[in-house]
Amino acid sequence: MGFLALDVTRTGVVLRKFNERGTRILERFNTHEVGMRRALITAQRELARDDDLTEVRANVQEPELAQRLKHCVTTEASDGGKLQALADAL
Question: The whole model's pTM is what?
């Protein structure tokens, strides 16, 4: 089993994949609204593609960025279950 992690810093968003084989950076995005949306779309695509991925976790360093990410999840996520848990955690 594995999971995806969104590391959100002032300078960007890094989407990582964690599984039994280790950690891999999937893609980097900016922190503007378009970058956040693209990060979530990529996360949704990875969740749909890989059944071993169970959740998406976030490490957000600033409250403003956490709120922006939460807004993007609630407005953009078509996968209600796994990404909604992310929004609830933010």
Answer: 0.84
